[in-house]
From TrEMBL:
Keyword check for tRNA processing: no
Pfam family membership, one: Lycopene_cycl
Requisite cofactors: FAD
Binding site for FAD: V202
This protein's name: GMC oxidoreductase-domain-containing protein
Record domain Glucose-methanol-choline oxidoreductase N-terminal: where: 77-268
Keywords carried by this UniProt record: FAD, Flavoprotein, Oxidoreductase
Superkingdom of origin organism: Eukaryota
Sequence similarity: Belongs to the GMC oxidoreductase family.
InterPro entries, A to Z: FAD/NAD-bd_sf, Glucose_Oxidase_domain_2, GMC_OxRdtase, GMC_OxRdtase_N
One annotated GO molecular function: flavin adenine dinucleotide binding
Alphabetical list of PANTHER family matching this protein: GLUCOSE-METHANOL-CHOLINE GMC OXIDOREDUCTASE, GLUCOSE-METHANOL-CHOLINE OXIDOREDUCTASE N-TERMINAL DOMAIN-CONTAINING PROTEIN
Record organism: Mycena metata
Top-level taxonomy: Eukaryota, Fungi, Dikarya, Basidiomycota, Agaricomycotina
Length: 458
């Protein structure tokens, strides 16, 4: 495709938001010329994107296909502060979710759950091709711990329950349902006003006075996609950000916005804490595939080619999970820092869980460092950080602070979360032991010390 030198709208970055904005604008008005510029490669018909176990390990312009819907109150409040109560006037955040969803979960068939899910959007949601026995085992263990099973904990209300985890996967084709396929490629197949430039890194926005008139970009030296990280970098190089910081880099200030680059929060699987357990050799996991077993990989790929709707590659192995909040008794043990956060941030928001955990039927870790066996891990989120440029050059890496563990209020819920996930795993029939290399270190004599078969043999 020949790219025009001038268009009406430029979208920098092909993450979920960028794909939705570019695709919907181009579709809504065929007279508009819209260009999306993305640092990564074109993902069209790329099996490393749409096959689940493979794509989970790939850095692509789409996100992990596990569905975790955002929370009604928190996001409504943030939007209302900025947009003048727009969400309350227009029925909350649900209408935005409805426009994207094509729900084919077993509990989402019309007319059930019609108030929380939709069926005609471009993003397919299902349980994936297979549900492992480990998932059912973990749900039983969660219930034994007092976390009840629910048909749907992605309803923006439930904060203490477990479920068969929903995924952004097309139930019929077995393909990952990504934003680029749903919103970009579908429009480009039928219209000529949407342009995609890949392997290009946007350096800055070009301003004439305080009016944005274009962008400057350079060839990408790698094919990674950085999402919200890139947004901050582009804004600061363009003169939008903390004036004092920009002036130190001799960048002309277009708009003094001190909040640019602050309050960074990444995706759960990027800043999660991983806890690996060994399960029985009879358990079905993705470990042999991830370990590079050629026979297993051949079998799994053939399975997907013949029946993708029920193949193992039509799932990301995240088959079950839960959302929880601490009880009153647990809060008393979590210290003053977290209790202060609880009172101001969680207490009156019954729809907001403190932690979520999922079982992954396989260890998404470096298998060269793991002994033979089958594994699963549970994960939970952490805190906020910041990112800022320290050079005007587009290839210089930014200053980055993930924010992990930089606030004492984080310590107690992380310890509590570790205990909860451990207690769930210990109640699973398939559990065999805990991998000490992927657990916190305790004194060997402590009852909290991880029990590892290989370590005991030594």
């Amino acid at each position: 495709m020949v790219h025009p030198q001038e268009v009406d709208i430029i979208v920098a970055g092909g993450g979920s938001a960028g794909c939705v904005v570019a695709g919907r604008l181009a579709y809504a008005d065929p007279t508009l010329k819209v260009m999306l510029i993305e640092g990564g490669a074109n993902n069209r018909d790329d099996p490393w994107v749409y096959r689940q176990v493979v794509s989970f390990l790939e850095c692509s312009p789409t996100h992990s296909p596990a569905q975790t819907r955002y929370l009604r109150e928190e996001h409504a409040e943030r939007w209302n502060q900025r947009q003048g109560d727009v969400l309350h006037r227009h029925g909350g955040i649900l209408p935005f979710a409805w426009e994207e969803e094509h729900c084919s979960l077993s509990n989402c068939q019309k007319p059930s759950n019609s108030e929380t899910h939709e069926y005609d959007g471009p993003i397919a949601i299902s349980n994936g091709g297979t549900i492992t026995a480990l998932a059912q085992d973990s749900l039983r263990a969660s219930d034994a711990l007092g976390v009840p099973f629910s048909d749907d904990i992605q309803d923006l209300n439930t904060s203490y329950a477990s479920e068969i985890w929903a995924k952004y996967i097309n139930r019929d084709t077995g393909r990952r349902s990504d934003a680029a396929t749903a919103y970009l490629h579908s429009v480009m197949d039928t219209q000529t006003n949407l342009f995609l430039r890949t392997n290009a890194r946007v350096s800055r926005v070009v301003f004439e006075g305080d009016k944005a008139v274009g962008v400057a970009y350079v060839p990408a030296r790698n094919r990674g996609h950085a999402g919200q990280i890139v947004e901050t970098i582009i804004l600061e190089r363009s003169g939008v950000g903390n004036a004092e910081r920009l002036q130190k880099l001799n960048i002309k200030v277009v708009n003094d916005l001190p909040g640019v680059g602050e309050e960074y929060q990444d995706h759960y699987t990027t800043i999660s804490s991983e806890i690996v357990f060994r399960v029985s050799n009879e358990s079905a996991t993705s470990d042999d595939f991830l370990r590079g077993d050629k026979e297993v990989q051949k079998e799994v790929f053939q399975e997907w080619a013949l029946s993708p709707e029920k193949a193992r590659l039509s799932s990301n192995a995240i088959d079950a999970g839960f959302k929880i909040r601490p009880t009153e008794a647990e809060l008393k043990e979590m210290g003053p820092e977290f209790n202060e956060l609880w009172d101001t941030y969680f207490k009156e928001k019954a729809d907001k869980p403190v932690m979520f955990g999922v079982i992954v039927s396989g260890a998404y870790a470096d298998h060269t460092l793991l002994p033979p066996g089958k594994f699963q891990y549970l994960e939970y989120p952490a805190s906020h950080g910041r990112i800022h440029i320290h050079s005007t050059k587009p290839y210089v890496e930014p200053e980055f602070d993930s924010g992990l563990m930089n606030n004492k209020a984080d310590f107690a819920p992380i310890r509590w979360s570790h205990k909860k996930t451990r207690e769930v795993a210990r109640r699973m029939d398939a559990l065999r032991d805990e991998l000490t290399s992927h657990h916190p270190r305790f004194h060997p004599a402590s009852p909290a010390a991880a029990k590892d078969i290989d370590a005991c043999r030594k």
